[in-house]
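TEACHING EXERCISE
Course module: macromolecular assemblies
Task: Read the component lines below, then compare them to the predicted structure of the full complex.
Student: A.B.
Group: 4
Components provided:
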Amino acid sequence: MAFSLPPLPYAHDALEPAIDKETMTFHHDKHHQAYVDKLNEAVAADAALADHSIEDLLKDVSKLPKAVRNNGGGHWNHSLFWKLMAPAGKTGEPSAELAAAIDRDLGGMDAFKAAFNAAGAGQFGSGWAWLIVQDGKLKVTSTPNQDNPLMDVADEKGEVVLAADVWEHAYYLKYQNRRPDYLKAFWSVVNWHKANDLFAAATR
Ligand code: MN
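Instructor-supplied answer key:
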């Protein structure tokens, strides 16, 4: 069964001013669609890859064609990323459980945000910043390209609670080279409802 582009869970302009409509339109409709199309091409070319979930492909990705790592990662990462953002008034706030874990493992919300932004700003070239649960504890990490913490090739593996795309295509039209400004604005659209759910599932 072929993979497909999930619809955005809000209008293309719903995250303005943090994420402008033009960036969101290219990012979701063109970039994410391209990852889906190329993933489907790669899976169609090898019968052994048929009928696997995206998560199954990613966890053994070191044994698979590079196109699956790049485009399967791209598809999974973006599918989650859209859900991890929400329009004003619908972002919620960290649950008591998540806030307590941030205090315990990361030194509090301000220190967490600073570490996450530093991970994103410090990722050379294209990649992602992550908040993960690893061995029951929260950790901030980053990955290059479309790698993610589910992959067997990841230096830091874990279950994802929050993610930020730091590819230039995620911010360049509005922020140009100012990746830190984009990351600062990202916090205004974080969907804490989704992050809380992912944290609860990862620590259940
Ligand atoms: Mn992207």
